[in-house]
Each structure stands twice: as C-alpha cells, then as structure tokens.
Amino acid sequence: MTDLKLTIELVPATAWYSNLRGVLPRKEWDNIRFKVYNDHNNCCAICGASGRLNCHEIWEYDDFQHIQKLKGFIALCEDCHWIKHIGLAGIKASEGQLDMQKLIDHFLKVNNVDVNTFEQHRSEAFKTFEERSKHEWKTDLGEWKCFIK
C-alpha cells in the first residue's frame, strides 16, 4: 500500500484511557500541548490546517510483550485527529454528531488516494485493533513518566 501521511491509529480496547493526558493535572497537560502546538507552528502537522488543534499522543505497540509506549506528541486538526480515532468517530457519526463522509474525504485528499485505499487501510486498522484488543496492555509513558507524581 502507498505510504500514507494520515493513518488510522486505533488504541486496543483493553488500553483505552491509558494515556498521559488522563493522569496529569490539567495545567501540566496544557503546558505539554501548548508546547506541541508551538513546535508545529500552530498548524496541523499532517495537513497544515490552522485553527483549533488537538494534541495527539503517539504510541508504539510491542505486540509480543503487550506494552504500549508513549513515543511523543503531534499537533492535529480536528479532521486528522478524528481519522486517527475513526472508531470513536464512527460512533459519533451514528449519533449525528459527526459527518463521516467529510472525514473520509479529508483522508482521501490528504493522502491523494481513492476510496478503495481508504477502505483497505481502515479494514487493516480494525484487524490490528481486534487482535491487540485480545490482550491486556502495560503502559510505558517513556520519558514522560517523570511527570507522574
């Protein structure tokens, strides 16, 4: 498959809510996310959009030892961020809170691909999600574990 700029990154169900944002006081998380936004010139690091940004945690998965390790952060626009979390986006879309076609169109434009490439990528992402969700994951906050009191 073509190298994609924007990819789907589904967190295993057994690791939901295991993240740095969830364990830090709001002020400390704000310090991290504002630095990330500044590091990316207050633009989405994937598509270049400006406006409201999200600080997305980048995770690496060890599929043998079942460890998810925090590798860093990236500034994302809302559309790119929803693609990363397309499972939740699908739930929100089914509730009428999100336009799934708009997100798919964003994926196609950013990656300069057709809908078949999107469907194949989404299918592969959900297969990985299902396999990873069969296991309990340990969370390694990497260099950011020092932020936890």
Q: Can you walk me through this structure?
A:
The model has no long low-confidence stretch (mean pLDDT 92). The protein has helices at residues 20-23, 26-39, 78-84, 86-94, 100-111, 115-132; strands spanning 53-62, 67-77, 138-140. It is globular and about 45 Å long. It has one domain. 43% of the residues lie in helices and 16% in strands. It has a three-stranded mixed beta sheet with strand order 1-2-3. The longest helix has 18 residues, at 115-132. By secondary structure, the protein is of the alpha+beta class.
Write the layout of secondary structure elements.
Elements (H helix, E strand, L loop, with lengths): L19 H4 L2 H14 L13 E10 L4 E11 H7 L1 H9 L5 H12 L3 H18 L5 E3 L9
Parallel strand pairs: 2-3
Antiparallel strand pairs: 1-2
